[in-house]
């Protein structure tokens, strides 16, 4: 995907469809009778930006693995820190985002942002057409498949790419980390070293 279009380059698309029917929100279009000509530049055809969304409550070593692998594929990865309306999350999105920034500090093509609202709207705002999600086991697939289909319905140009977690992280989840930490268990290796002490402090005793 890198090098798909030079930043100064342009692509001209001629179509019989109207600008509205074409469905793309990018580019400048001109109507000539029954023909629509759309001119795209490098920023319009940004297929090299991927969104890696999640609640990250907290960020685990498994999450970080997926982010790193996505960063090796795409030119830029935006980690979108959102909420989960089905879960009570005492740690704010802003605080979770700060922890992720510390853990990803060495990844130059990764940025972290707080996400409010729908993922598809966030992706549109960033000119992204790719969502990256991690899969740990077959049990993850059903819910992720449904989410991907809903997102595709709301944003037809949006693709979801799944990256399989490594075997060492196949059991790992934020809920596991929270439970172990709440009872004073050793979470070293379960979360990135950069945020180990912070996670211990925040989540210790949370389940008691």
UniProtKB/TrEMBL annotation:
- Determine the domain of life of the protein's source: Bacteria
Q: Name one GO cellular component term.
A: cytoplasm
EC number(s) from the headed UniProt entry: 2.7.7.3
Cofactor section: Mg(2+)
* Known pathway: Cofactor biosynthesis; coenzyme A biosynthesis; CoA from (R)-pantothenate: step 4/5
Q: Quote the function comment for this protein.
A: Reversibly transfers an adenylyl group from ATP to 4'-phosphopantetheine, yielding dephospho-CoA (dPCoA) and pyrophosphate.
Provide the protein name. Answer: Phosphopantetheine adenylyltransferase
């Amino acid at each position: 995907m890198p090098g798909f279009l030079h930043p100064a380059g342009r692509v001209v698309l001629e179509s019989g469809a109207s600008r509205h029917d074409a469905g793309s929100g990018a580019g400048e279009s001109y109507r000539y009778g029954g023909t629509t000509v759309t001119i795209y530049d490098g920023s319009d055809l940004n297929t090299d930006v991927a969104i890696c969304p999640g609640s990250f409550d907290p960020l685990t070593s498994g999450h970080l693995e997926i982010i790193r692998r996505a960063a090796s594929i795409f030119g830029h990865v935006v980690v979108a820190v959102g909420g989960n309306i089905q879960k009570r999350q005492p740690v704010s999105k802003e605080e979770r985002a700060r922890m992720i920034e510390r853990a990803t500090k060495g990844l130059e093509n990764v940025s972290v942002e707080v996400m409010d609202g729908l993922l598809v709207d966030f992706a549109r705002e960033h000119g992204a057409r790719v969502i990256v999600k991690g899969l740990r086991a077959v049990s993850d697939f059903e819910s992720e498949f449904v989410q991907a289909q809903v997102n595709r319905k709301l944003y037809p140009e949006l693709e979801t790419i799944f990256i399989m977690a490594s075997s060492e992280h196949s059991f790992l989840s934020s809920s596991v980390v929270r439970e172990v930490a709440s009872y004073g268990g050793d979470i070293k290796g379960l979360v990135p070293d950069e945020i180990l002490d912070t996670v211990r402090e925040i989540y210790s005793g949370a389940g008691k």
